[in-house]
């Protein structure tokens, strides 16, 4: 009963946060319309980069053009959903820590991370979500082989799991600001990792690079595992590795955030 009350409370808060966000966006119409243009342009640029990089390449790590289109579409979908739901709230964490504005979030009777996650939804990124889905469908059509219901469900499962990992990485990178004065270098590392792995699937990494992009900065598995599940390359050991990585980063996110909040409190009270 207590758990149901808490869920209803947070659902009510979520509804209010989204309503306030849409109200603010509609007051300033350009804030509402500009993301449609910006995100659409970003998507077209990604496609042009893909075309330039892979126009003269037959396969990448054994994947043909169909699999690579699936990969690009899947990574774009993860990025688009993040931008739609949580990115523009999470990205403000370092500034709120430096300015002391985090106090306002800690004083509210809800989780500060919950509010930061959902207070700046970006409806303009919905266009990028739709475009990403269209690219995934197009890539599936160019891929040889059949897609059974089991594979499609497995793909949806891994996209969901990797979306959680994508979110956790965003929170981890920004939580570093609880412990250091500037996390700019860490953010640059995130940008470099994302930029590389948006163009190159995890199956192309070997040796130390595979260790880095599978287990330390796991951007290499975020779109790779969903695609592998869809085209029939997922093995039990690979699935166990993916679940293990997500579980480890879930724990790391929890520890960094909760200890960061305590560290922040002690600093503010000093």
Give an account of the 3D structure.
The chain has one domain (46-269). Helix 1 (2-27) crosses helix 2 and helix 2 (29-54) packs parallel to helix 8 (126-142). The model has no long low-confidence stretch (mean pLDDT 84). The chain starts with a helix and ends with a helix. The protein is mostly helical. Helices cover 78% and strands 0% of the residues. The radius of gyration is 20 Å and the shape is globular. It is built from 14 helices and no strands. The longest helix is centred in the last third of the chain and has 34 residues, at 236-269.
Give the helix/strand layout:
Blueprint: H1 2-27, H2 29-54, H3 65-85, H4 87-90, H5 93-99, H6 102-106, H7 112-118, H8 126-142, H9 149-175, H10 184-199, H11 208-216, H12 219-222, H13 224-230, H14 236-269
Helix pairs in contact: 1-2, 2-8, 3-8, 3-9, 9-13, 9-14
Give a concise summary.
The chain is mainly alpha-helical.
Order of helices and strands: HHHHHHHHHHHHHH
Which shape, going by the Cα principal axes? Answer: globular
**What is the count of β-strands?**
0
**Which sheet architecture does the biggest sheet show?**
none
Proportion in helices: over 70%
**Average pLDDT value?**
84
Spatial separation of the terminal alpha carbons: 39 Å
Oligomer: single chain
Number of helices: 14
Strand content bin: under 5%
The total number of structural domains is 1
Unreliable segments of 5+ consecutive residues? none
**CA gyration radius, whole angstroms:** 20 Å
Q: What structural class do you assign from the helix and strand content?
A: mainly alpha
